[in-house]
Amino acid sequence: MIPVPVKFLILAVLVFSVGYVHLRGRVRHKLPRQLTDHSSFLAPLNTLLYLTSSVPNKPYLSPDDFPEMKRFQDNWETIRDEAQALFQAGEIKRSNTYNDAGFNSFFKSGWKRFYLKWYGGDSHPSASKLCPKTTALLQEVGSVKAAMFTVLPPGARLVRHRDPYAGSLRYHLGLSTPNDPACFISVDGEHYAWKDGEAVVFDETYIHHAENTTDQDRLIFFCDMERPLKYGWATALNRWFSRTVMAAASSPNDAGDRTGGVNRAFKYLYRLRLQGKALKKRSRNLYYSLKWGTLGGLFGMFLLS
In which element (H, E) is residue 173 found? Predict the structure, then answer.
């Protein structure tokens, strides 16, 4: 049994962390949404990472502060050629089997991806086979934990969201883009329009969204870089989380690639999600009563056990 003072300490840490995450940016979710957002469940870890970060906590960072990433920009045309060949062959695509928990909600917009590597592992076997030059470049940059090619088609919009994990920073390199302000990402209310051969670095745990209202596809090289931290113990914790928890969300391009435990379970968990959506459509009052009642019950069990 957990002593009562320890329970209240845990509660205080959780409340402080969720509040810190919620108030961190100019753009915020409404409080009820924030309380059940996945970023709240990782708030204690993320707050620790923010407080020990050796780079500024702001929406956008200069790519010049990450000189190892210049290797990709110097070779952007080589990367582009492999990405375009994949796209034309239909290899950059959505998942149709509920095995990509991290990006499943994007697929309905038409967003597509081809994984190059994911946390805790080397390049996907399919990527090594189909885009050997890009995967060879990735092997030279140890700070990149995950990478993929992504496409945002004409008319697509990715809704406002936070990514759940603050142990990384997001890098985008324009490969074949509209080069138009109408195709952009907005991070904490600040817009950036992708351009061919140009890189941008941002903190994906700020609320962000993307739109492409042009008549052209947007194809980019997308990486998660390890967040630089001030202390060795914080870096060790971040790397442990990366190679264990984050690695469990690995999603395949084809049958020859590894599927992490989270995504093996996702197809079953998503059935519950679909039932929840159906209930919400029938009766919003009942849906929210059950949702908040369940959360309140779990919270009460923790305090009273």
Answer: strand 168-176
For residue 117, which of 227, 263, 224, 235 has the smallest C-alpha distance?
224
Q: Cα separation of 14 and 194, whole Å? A: 37
d(CA 97, CA 269): 13
Pick from 207, 242, 245, 240: which is nearest to 225 by CA?
242
Closest CA to 161 of 113, 95, 109: 109
CATH number of 60-259: 2.60.120.330
Q: How far is CA 263 from CA 58, 93, 171, 245, 248, in A?
A: 31, 17, 24, 12, 7
Using alpha carbons, select from 223, 110, 96 the residue that is nearest to residue 158.
110
Spatial separation of the C-alpha atoms in residues 178 and 300, rounded to whole Å: 52
Where do the structural domains in the chain lie, given as residue ranges?
A: 60-259
The SS3 call for residue 298 is helix
Strand 208-212 relative to strand 157-161: parallel, antiparallel, unpaired? antiparallel
- Over residues 50-100, the pLDDT tens digits come to 999 999 999 999 999 999 999 999 999 999 999 999 999 999 999 988 899
pTM of whole model > 0.90? yes
